[in-house]
Amino acid sequence: MALLWTISVCGLFSLVLAAPPECEQLIKPVDLTDPTVFDGKWFVVAAIGQGNMKWQKYFEGMTSSSFEMSPVSEDGKIHVRWADRVEGKCLPGTLDVTVSGSKSSSMFEGVLHESEYLQTCPDCLLFTDTSTQDNVLSKYMFLSKRQGSLTEAELETLKKQAECLDVPLTVYTYEAADLCPY
């Protein structure tokens, strides 16, 4: 009987060790050389993270955000146009983002922003954004969709992804309504 119990426990233990950790499944990178991954119009449905007070206030005051991404150019850049509604005001902008594999970098308001794009729900785009400004590290994740609202299941997955990447769990959610023009 002890031998059977030992074999059973060892078998169960080996299955646990062989199972991939949940984070491996949740934070798979996306190759940005495939334009179908990101090309087109997107609506930000959630931001999660924290950092510089300026950005925390911005995301707290934001009620909607949309952006459009172009295919990667020959020089490895994506052109991004966006418009956020923050405290009732429309704040449009444009930015060129340098792409390499699943990562990108850009300068925004004199600060280097580094991002990684990750797999998530169908017709969704998930990316991280890390920057340091005034000696304060900012870490955010943004979940965007081509259409529709954020579901509870998508939000729970986003929270798990944030935990895997050690992104603070301050969550902001938005609706794809009352959008500003680019």
Automatic annotation (TrEMBL):
GO terms for cellular component: extracellular region. Residues 1-18 form the signal peptide. Keywords: Glycoprotein, Secreted, Signal. InterPro entries: ApoM, Calycin. It is found in: Secreted. SUPFAM superfamilies: Lipocalins (SSF50814). It comes from the Eukaryota. This is Apolipoprotein M.
